[in-house]
Write a structure and sequence with these properties.
118 residues; alpha+beta; three-stranded antiparallel β-sheet; 1 helix; extended
Length: 118
């Protein structure tokens, strides 16, 4: 019985060790694109309450790899079809000077993007 408990504990320790080691191995094997650039912009609403429909684009030769929006109620955040920009729709309820939505994008050179050439 003691031998069975020792084997069970050894198996549990091995499984626990693998659970911590496997994510680190897969993360280190992932390609890390170089040349990432981040861009951000404030888009103001002319009326409050009001809405903002904004598009923020990557420079030529770059592809969208990440985006985010805030400071307003974000209703939609969608990359454009060729992943060179993001379109954001947001509801703005704060009076000036806080009547804006903040949009941020991260772009990578098309040659370093995992989906380039598709």
């Amino acid at each position: 019985m003691k031998k069975l408990i020792r084997i069970g504990l050894a198996v549990a320790a091995a499984v626990t060790g693998m659970l911590f080691a496997l994510p680190a191995l897969s993360a280190s094997a992932s390609p890390i694109p170089s040349g990432l650039q981040t861009f951000s912009r404030y888009f103001y609403s002319t009326s409050v309450p009001g809405g903002v429909n904004a598009t923020l684009a990557c420079p030529s030769g770059y592809r969208l790899v990440g985006s985010g929006a805030g400071h307003a109620q974000v209703l939609a955040e969608t990359p454009v079809q060729n992943f060179t920009a993001v379109t954001v729709a947001a509801a703005v309820s704060d009076p000036a000077p806080n009547n804006f939505a903040y949009v941020s994008i991260t772009c990578a050179p098309q040659t370093s993007s995992p989906t380039s050439g598709r």
